[in-house]
Amino acid sequence: MKLFRIRGGVHPEGRKRLSEDQPIEDLPLPELLHVPLQQHIGAPAVAIVSKGDQVKKGQVIATAQGNISAPVHAPSSGTVVGLGRYAAPHPSGLPGRTITIRTDGLEEWTELSEPMDAFMADPKDIAKRVSECGVVGMGGATFPSSVKLNLGQRYDLHTLIINGAECEPYLTCDDRLMREYADDITMGVRIMARALNVKRVLIAIEGNKPSAIRAMGQAANAYDDVTIVEVPARYPMGSEKHLTQTLLGLETPARGLTADIGAVVHNIATAFAVFEAVTKGIPLISRIVTVSGEAITRPSNLRVLTGTPVAKLIEHVGAYSSEPERLLLGGPMMGQPLADLKVPLVKGTNGVLALTGLQAATQVTTTSCIRCASCVDACPCGLVPLEMAAAIRKEEMELATKSGLMDCVGCGSCAYVCPSNIPLVQYFNYAKGRITAVQRTEHKQKETKRLADQRTERMERQAAAKREAMEKRKAEQAKKKAAQQAARNQEQEKVSA
Amino acid sequence: MSTPPPLIGGPFLKQSPSVSHIMLVVMLALTPATLYGLFQFGLPALYLFLVTIAASLLAEAIWLKLAGRPALPALSDGSAVLTGWLLALTLPPWAPWWIGVIGAFIAIIIGKQVFGGLGQNLFNPAMVARVVLLISFPFQMTYFIHPVPLFQQGAPGPLESLAVTFGYGSGPTIDTLSSASVLGHVKTEIGRGTVWADAFSSTFDMHGLVFGAVPGSLGETSAPLLLLGGLLLLAARLITWHIPLVMMGTIAALAAVFNAIDPLVYPDALTHLLSGATVLGAFFIATDLVTSPVSATGKIVFGAGCGALIYIIRTWGGYPEGMAFAVLLMNAATPLIDRYTKPRVYGRTRRGTPLVHEEASK
Fold first, then answer.
1. Which GO terms describe its molecular function (chain A) (predicted)?
2. What is the crossing angle of helices A210-220 and A173-180, to 10°?
3. DSSP run (H or E) holding A352
């Protein structure tokens, strides 16, 4: 298949060797599971259990709220022992709403939804089932998958792209999943294609995963509409818009969706979750996580229940071989620093990394920008990062926005190549936060003004109506009075006459 | 400066060479041509070279001290050494020591630090210094000697060389050695009405031009060795092909056109490419990261501008060589070039509006 070149990008050392040959292994059931209510983009789920309740594995413990949300299920059977705030996997380190379950070790399942015959079912029902099972984008973005599976109703779609690029260094969870569950994934992919009503499926896998390509190729061989595409190993190949461009040669319009050009992108692990949800009724309560890094004794790929504290994973793989200088959730390019080992694993966590030495990049000093333009060459979005950063340093957010700040996907290629070690992504995140805050304030002010204006208008209208009514009454009274007066006068005239 | 907040945005991997690494590679790339130049022009050239670099470091240290900034990180990043080095390469090899010192102070302080230090300067520091020197001290700056390689008969010894550079005692009878640079000679002769080819061949030969056995500045004589260094920079991906290729291409094209129009007056393309500072400028001066545009298109515009200006100044200007002027003029245009040659943003047209595809939405 003809591939198209994308602009920029970088080639970080893969370091997937560490864990790529480790088969998926089940993590032993932890005693406590801290299940956050926000494991997705959108509104957090609302708890429907209370302290002391017995829950079964797979039972809904929090329901979705609003259109963009996802329910949360009990990862194992046990007792709800806590319902409150707990350390959350968020860079702020702030706690989030969490249900804590003390597991009973019985792993007793709740009554699951009936398996569906996806190829007979209504596409809408597939999306509904995916939604009920709490499936979200598992590449890290955690956008509720059902919303994306319903895009077929609003767009004329022609291609479903399955993202098996796994372009982040170290991570091998998708690689392992493809090698070990190729048939299930292929089934999941075909179910998704049916939900979206597309005729063509492209499964994109980076060339550094030959075993996965072979396994998926065998599994998909029987289906003409499913094609395995080997894409070059280059970061950020897994970026949705850039993967689409590589495969279709079309750029997604700025601020738009890939659906605007007729394609929808889902992650490979999401396809597996969809398979489980639709054909078995199993909700999303576990995922594959790569535990790796130079400081990890035994790099592994683990199947982990959501809500499992990170400490349990590290314990299981034999703790540290050396003191890690940096702990990360996710990949080293776009992952986030891990503040605390008690933080629970969530639906979107694909890796736990313990880095040391050069790889940790902790002891870097920032020097002046020498305008070397490495960042310009590396940016896959055609931005001029050095210029944006200079504007942000001067708090000139408008200039930064004009330079394309909001078109930045935050991939970090620029900061990766910067010889002056300027934390460009940090600048951009800061500015994006500031701009969002300003927009929110502006929106609030506008709304307040609108409401105030409406109120003034309403009050004026009421006052006018009152005044009118009063004048009318006055006029009527005056008329009446005049009539009475007239009558009285007549009478008087009569009397006097 | 307050301590920066902890890094919460990735990436947590680093590929890249540091700034000082970049400077080191550039110096490495300059080394063959420099060594050859030093060999050609002997010990006085070596003295001047060392004095200029030392003065650059001193200027940087003094400024940082006055500004109350830590001196060590800036001194050790190699940028001051490189500036001094590049400046020394553009000086007449037997120029007196104070030329190097004044040049270094101008380059570091006026050329770089008053703008805010490394990365902030608009103009190439070494070229600022060279132009100031050329205008202020035209005699010393155009006093070229015919090369007398080291260890050869007639090469000045260590003490004599000290006398050449530092000007005490009695130096060698350097008057007999003085000469004009190729471009200078050709310009003078053409001014006198001599046909350029005669003017050229009466004094020089192409062989000498290629291998640098001609009078000229310290670093601008050996085209093949400079080219070697330039290729090293390209291989190390510190520069891209855009500026050097377009710049030399523009010079060659203009030279070829005018040479075709009147071969008696206008030197041919090869002479232009091999003489003066063409190769040094194309690979090491115009490509200065700080003062050249950042996008590929911008670099092409910049290179073409430099090339055209060099040819214009050489051919019709008052100076035999125009590299420094051309680069400085294009430096001044760099912010403007950058503004109009930004890459196209993903998903947007060149004008910045979102792309429109055939509507897929129902």
1. 4 iron, 4 sulfur cluster binding; electron transfer activity; metal ion binding
2. 40
3. strand A351-355
Interface list for B 111-140 with A (CB within 8 A): 117-120
Quick one: pLDDT band at residue A11, thresholds 50, 70, 90?
Answer: very high
Yes or no: say if A270 and A138 are a contact pair by the CB < 8 Å rule.
yes
Give me the total of CB pairs closer than 8 Å, taking one residue from chain A and one from chain B.
Answer: 184
A144 bridge partner residues: A136
pLDDT at B265 (0 to 100): 82
Alpha-carbon distance of A334 to A170, in angstroms, equals 12
Residues 60-79 of B with CB under 8 A from A: 73, 77
The total of other beta-carbon atoms located within 10 Å of residue B98's CB is: 15
Nearest Cα residue to A371 out of B198, B121, B203: B121
The answer to whether the CB atoms of A368 and B120 lie below 8 A apart is yes
Query: What percentage of chain A carries pLDDT values higher than 90?
Result: 76
Q: CA of A14: which chain B residue's CA is closest?
A: B13
CA–CA distance, A73 with A49 (Å, rounded to integer): 11
pLDDT single digits (tens) A176-188: 999 999 999 999 9
Assigned fold of A17-26+114-305: Rossmann fold (3.40.50)
Identify the pLDDT of residue B44.
87
**Model pTM score:** 0.86
Give the pLDDT score at B163. Answer: 74
CB atoms within 10 A of CB B200: 22
A369 is in an annotated binding site: yes
Mark yes or no for CB contact A260/B8 under 8 Å. no
* pLDDT of the residue at B330: 97
- The chain A residue lying nearest B79, using CA atoms, is A370
B306 interface with A at CB cutoff 8 Å = no
Secondary structure class of A267 (helix, strand, coil):
strand
Q: Distance between CA A143 and CA A69 in Å, rounded?
A: 8
pLDDT, chain A, mean: 92
Low-confidence ranges of chain B (pLDDT < 70): 1-9, 16, 153-154, 168-182, 185-187, 189-213, 358-362
Residues of B in contact with A154 (CB under 8 A): 361-362
Better-scored residue on pLDDT, B206 or A411: A411
CB-CB contact of A237 with A246 (8 Å) = yes
**Interchain proximity B361–A156, CB inside 8 Å:** yes
In chain A, where are the structural domains located? 17-26+114-305, 364-471
B307 residue type, one letter: G
- CA-CA distance, B4 to B56, in Å (whole number)? 31
SS3 content of chain B, % helix, strand, coil (to 5): 60, 0, 35
pLDDT for the residue B191: 65
* pLDDT of res. B212: 60
Residues of B in contact with A418 (CB under 8 A): 16
Chain A residue closest in CA terms to B11:
A333
| Chain A CB contacts of B355 below 8 Å | 251, 253-254
Q: Are the C-beta atoms of residues A332 and A169 closer than 8 Å to each other?
A: yes
B148 to chain A nearest CA, in Å?
Answer: 39
What pLDDT, on a 0 to 100 scale, did the predictor assign at position B158? 76
How far apart are the C-alpha atoms of A416 and A354, rounded to whole Å?
Answer: 19
Cα angle vertex A406, ends A403, A409, to 5°?
Answer: 110
Predicted local confidence at residue B198, as pLDDT: 64
pLDDT confidence of residue A62: 95
Q: How far is A33 from chain B (nearest CA, A)?
A: 26
Q: Which residues of B touch A358 (CB under 8 A)?
A: 14
CB contact under 8 A, A332 and B360: no
Task: State the smallest CA–CA distance between residue B227 and chain A in angstroms.
Answer: 21
What ipTM goes with this model?
Answer: 0.84
Q: Which fold has domain A364-471?
A: Fumarate Reductase Iron-sulfur Protein; Chain B, domain 2 (1.10.1060)
| Interface touch A262/B360, C-beta < 8 Å | yes
